[in-house]
## 1
Amino acid sequence: MNDENVENTNINHNPPTAKPGKTFYRRNLPHMQKLRRPIFITFRTRPGLILPESTRTQVLNHCLHDHGHKLHMHCAVVMPDHVHLLLTLLEDSDGMPYSLEEIMSGIKGASSHTVNACLKRKGKLWQDESFDHVLRSDQSTHAKAQYICDNPIRKGLVSDLDDYPWLWREWVEGEGEAKA
């Protein structure tokens, strides 16, 4: 049985428990989380690194990996040099919330490993820091979702959102993995 099957088997039989997290942690930027509130997150590649199209689906799938288990993803987009996410952290079976620190470490670590293997390179893929912002109202949640979805158009990558394969929206794609 390969590692992927072992991991999936463990998830199905032993639901993951949340690592004790903080509602606030600091690296160079402050990072806050609030139970049941969406969080807008942006993280970037290291300066000068562009994600080839061949790797963007893998990055998006890593972003969606814990959807429905540790987080609820509202929307996500993988751009050539950055990623935007809008998600709400979930709780484990004991009512403990998963931490933003744990989620981001998992997404960035796993996607970095996959992309580096694909590109036959070594080294850091992502900048250490990410920008995150707890949204306070449904209106700001809708505005951030619109901002995320419009990113490929604003950057001139497509003229129609449905033509950008590295965009995932819960109200369109629903449950599951990236389409590309």
Note: Residues 18 and 98 are 5 Å apart (CA to CA).
## 2
Amino acid sequence: MTKPGATDDAARSDAGAAGRGPAATDPFGSVGTQTLVRTSASVDPLSVLPERAFDNLLVVAARDHPAKLQRRLERAGRDLSNVGVVPVVPAAREYDGDLWTTDAVSPDDLTGLGMRFSDALGHVEPGTGWVFVDALGVLLMYAADARVCRWFQTVANRVRARDVRGVYCANAGAVASGTYEQLRSMCDAEYGAE
């Protein structure tokens, strides 16, 4: 990581969240819940997250470059020191902003992505942290569906085991229905933000 940020001070209580599926007051369930979010291309993926997610958030950014994420977070008044990014970019572009990041990885390099994700997950606090993948469809454009599903299962299991909420965005209209169902089956809940 280029800039590991301190996140302990910003943790908030998740009182009111119950169960392993979506609750009436919290569509993302309790600690450790893994949620697949149906999004469309017109929706800003970050907009689906609740306020408390930004207290300790790791973004696997396949849709947006870190510079674009930084601008969105700044406009929303978020503390950049609490957000880390694993940049997944088809063409390497430099980033020298205020978000802490891993080295960029190509979307067809799921092994490299897994390694960078593993390193970054160590900065996500059990019990209060969140992991967010902004566009599973991008990975599916560059790697075989079966490989992406295996990668996703590993990620979801690791996030769940760390007692961290996972939120994974996919455009159901742009992903093969069988693949979408397989991704959904590996999650505890599904949420629509279309």
Note: Residues 21 and 189 are 5 Å apart (CA to CA).
## 3
Amino acid sequence: MLKSIVIAALIVLAIACGSDSDDSAAVAPDSDGTNEYGFDVSMTARPGSTFTIDDVKAAGWKSSKEFPVDQLEGATAVWFGFYQQKNLEVWVYDDHEDAVDLGSGPAEEIVAATRGVSGGGAGPYMKQTTHYGAYGIVGNLLILCESEVAVCESLADALP
């Protein structure tokens, strides 16, 4: 009898855990910057401001590596580094409009492809190591944030 109950419980558990749902498509941002679960995946701040990578460093971001800009249309610089113990990729554009018009599309694709994913996928240069759960456009900067948009917001608040 006990054996039958254990087998039945295992079958129920296997059915419950065997869902084939694809969560990567469910996290793409909708028109208000949230995914279908209500989590913010993007933010925009300080549209009239223009920042340099030195401004980002002065805000507490630690640069690690600069990448070529050939994979991002309109970007003038692409940097990888750390802020609040999270990986951040910073894309620098000439102005806010370019960051929005040229950077939003690639950033949304990266967030949709890597949020909640384990084992691969990331920004244009950190393909197998970093997963970006959000991005922020702050002035002329587009910032890919490792975990959540709050990290982007914190960096935006720390910029001069």
Note: Residues 115 and 133 are 4 Å apart (CA to CA).
